[in-house]
Specification:
alpha/beta, Rossmann fold, two-stranded antiparallel ribbon, 8 strands
Length: 187
Amino acid sequence: MKTIMVDMDDVLTYGSFTKILDDYLGYHYNYDTVKTYYIQDILGDKKEDFFMKFKDMNMYENATLLPDCYDVLKELSKYYKIYICTDYIWREITQYAGNNLRNKYNFLYEKLDFIEPKNYIFTCDKSVVNCDIKIDDKVSNIEGAKTKLLFTAWHNRDLRDEELKEKNIIRVNNWLEIGAILLEDFK
């Protein structure tokens, strides 16, 4: 049975961190202008203050699964062994990583009831994970896989198709596209 590694933030879930940032800023930020992977970099010198408030928050309290994610993953689980692989350490507040780890675990346990907790991988270095297929929004996290699916996000949307093709990366924009690619042989 082939294996799939699936990233969590901005691949399975959405909306939680940007809502917290907007609440902190007091207005809706235009995230279409963000180019960096670390969206919190928009805070500049306010970052330390933000993270001292953020460290005790549960960013998954208001998070939701992306559309069609549950159904496609459930169907994929009939044919593939699925691992959820996610980073839980905030570089700004590493000493509070346990809070984020607990919240991520609880969200996955509640929302993806068909994936066993033993298939959750919490790591900052996804290169140590050896899976046939990797689905992530960060190019470096899908290296080493036979099939590399790059989930479109604010920080990778400007990568050119030619650039992705050179690296044998397939861009996906939603879970229906993922299902069409990975379930094609099972129809």
